[in-house]
Amino acid sequence: MKTRLYTLIAVYLLIVGKTIAQHSYKMQPAVLQTRWAKEVTALHNHDAYPRPQLMRTNWINLNGLWDYAIVHKGEQPKENFGGRILVPYPIESALSGVQKSLLPDQELWYKRKVLKPKSKTGDRVLLHFGAVDWQATVFVNGKEVVKHEGGYTAFTVDITSELKAGSNELKVKVFDPTDAGIQPHGKQTLNPANIYYTPSSGIWQTVWMEVVQKNYIESLTITPDIDKKLVSVIVHSHVNGTVKLKTDNCIIAGKANTVINVPVKDMKLWSPENPHLYDLTVILGKDQVKSYFGMRKIGVAKDIKGISRICLNNKPYYNLGTLDQGFWPDGLYSAPTDAALKFDVEAIKAMGFNTIRKHIKVEPARWYYYADKLGILVWQDMVNPDQQLRPGAKVEFEKESKEIVNQLHNYPSITTWVLFNEEWGAYDQARMTNWLKISDPTRLVNGHSGGILYVNNQKAKGADTSYVNADITDIHSYPNPMISLNQNNKAMVCGEFGGIGVSVTGHEWNDITGWGYVQVLPKDLESRYDHMIKKLYQLKEQGLSGSIYTQPFDVEGEENGLITYDREIAKVPLTRLKEINSQLIRTAPYHLSTTIGNTNNIQTDVQYQTLLDKFNQNPNQDSTFLRGLTIMALHKKDQENLTKIGNAYIDKLKYPDIDQNAVFISQITRTSKDKGFQLFSKSDNPQRQNFAVNILMSEILSKLDNETNLAILDTVAQKVTEKYGKIGERASAHAIAGFAWNKQNWPLFVKYKNIIYKKFDADVNGLNINNDSWTIFLKSVDKFELESALNWQKIVLGREQYKDGGSIDTYANILYKLGRKEEAIEWENKAIATSEDPELKKTLEKMKAGQPTW
């Protein structure tokens, strides 16, 4: 009876917990949102079994709401953690429900309760992580069970011995310094701009548990051989037991951990035109997994003209590809849902491409499954090493690259490994290329994509030695494609070209600073793209084997995608793209099940007056219209209308203070009459406050420029302070101090600098203070002014990050000018001890001799 009661209570708590969880999750505001984001809930996000090539039926999805905490590195989080995060979305993403940055001196902690799964005696419970960026330490009931480094690879730990009956506590500690660390981090950066993007820290792929037999299948190595009409399979296990392989009405027996050759009769070859997959069942004792494989071969061989070309299944096969970065506006590294993950492969195939270059990122296993199933070749980049090659970076890159190659071995869609990209951290080219070739001789190795780079036909960098030991020579050329070097027995490809930027109003991450190698209007993209495909046709005749267009989707500030970042608008209709691509290759018809829009209604600057008239007749327009018209007014330098339209746009914003909206508002805010100024002047965010201060300062200085009655300045400061409060006081103090410096009025300068450094800690900057103090040292003989400068320097010397030889030297010189010679000499010796500047020793000798140092 008690057992039944406990079961009922557990079920009740589970139901209540699910209800609470659903209501406690809320996606954070995002500048752009994909259609799939609205389907994401705390209970349903990535629900599909995450590993299609090693599937079991008995698994427990641990995606959902976890507790989280961000703490200083080395500290422990508080017991209640203090927040909730939706797994598996990076903490910086809107879909995580958090949208906070993880800094290099911080750690991110996760915590959740898990029930011990129902199991039989001898069964094992495995805990799996699809990917955690970057360093993950896992604890079960307080005991560390595994530590894994590598932000792109899966890892598994047996937690059977640490589990107790009922509820158990699972914790994960994450350290991710992004581009401040030695680890491969792809295009993630702490300061996103241009071709570098927002970080994706923490758990960003599915977490799950599964119960397995005592003797279980750990992994599979599947290698097709179409020439011998067989597939080789290695069943990896901790025991060398008998295994059975079932495929296509064929059953083969063998031993675990040895090669088992399975004949494939009436072989159906895998290709993008016919992506046939064979089902595979593997049995070891009572353990059984489902898998699949495809029969294909990739290589380089000479055509009838003696040109080395990429061949698929022993026939020349042009690789017409696009550069896919795998970022999402709402999920960053994580697609919102499994359907979204599939969409990207579908969309690229619908455009008429047969190849995807997966650019310095590794996707979840299900992405490669869709590439296998739908039929598209994949060039898989290694995730580039730390570009500064700090100590330890090479070792970490080689370790993680080895894991990537092993993890992705079985996918027939992957035909090419790309080792380095555009000299980003490249080293030991010959050795590393050879290592990759030996690691997987069944695929092509592109040792250096873009080792030679051209921009507008000008060679930017690179050397012929980039391609030693590789199967391919590969140059990058923006915007128009070029053919790469012709080297013996190597195929020639153009690994990147294009980069044509097109802004689509209402579908931009940042509509003022959007970036592309070339910026054109939407109507021009189609003709430019058609011209480039015609050029590729000519290069193909000369021996080009493949080309990669940049890129299928916009990514943050990069607006050179064929489809917008939110996957809503095709800048050229997909059917038209497929038609253009068909000039180069023939692909089977493929139609998207999801409808996306086109660019017929794009606003342009040419329409400015017409759209302005529409606004003046009815200011209550939607936010997309208003944002586009605001940008036009900015381009036209029409300040009066910019203020009017910009204010109307800000009124429409539901979340004006989120970072992406705030950046835009700051770029259209010019005066204190603008609502952006009002928004920022009341913000608690220091950066927003600084922006408001700068605007007000500019306005005050414009009024003071020709002022000759200095007595009026205090009145100006008083009135501005009364009107704007602390923001006004700070702005007027800076403005008048700047005015006084220009007029060489040092008493006035010191008066207002004293106000700034006494009242506004946000303005305490070591370099600025040192410059102010040094100016007074050189220009003034007044005791009060010099003592004020000395006090400013004390602020600098009291903060370790500002203390250096130059700051100490300034302090010593002011002491000396005040007549405090012994103290000055003592401090000048300290300056010499912390700096190699030879001028400091000369200053010291002058002080000892009683000579002026100014």
UniProtKB/TrEMBL annotation:
InterPro entries: Beta-gal/glucu_dom_sf (IPR036156), Beta-mannosidase-like_N2 (IPR054593), Galactose-bd-like_sf (IPR008979), GH (IPR017853), GH2_Domain-Containing (IPR051913), Glyco_hydro_2_cat (IPR006103), Ig-like_fold (IPR013783), Ig-like_GH2 (IPR006102). It comes from the Bacteria. Residues 341-450 form the Glycoside hydrolase family 2 catalytic domain. Residues 242-296 form the Glycoside hydrolase family 2 immunoglobulin-like beta-sandwich domain. Belongs to the glycosyl hydrolase 2 family. One of its GO terms (molecular function) is hydrolase activity, hydrolyzing O-glycosyl compounds. It comes from Mucilaginibacter corticis. GO terms for biological process: carbohydrate metabolic process. Residues 105-185 form the Beta-mannosidase-like galactose-binding domain. The keyword Hydrolase applies. Pfam families: Glyco_hydro_2, Glyco_hydro_2_C, Glyco_hydro_2_N2. Keywords: Glycosidase, Hydrolase. This is Glycoside hydrolase family 2. SUPFAM superfamilies: (Trans)glycosidases, beta-Galactosidase/glucuronidase domain, Galactose-binding domain-like.
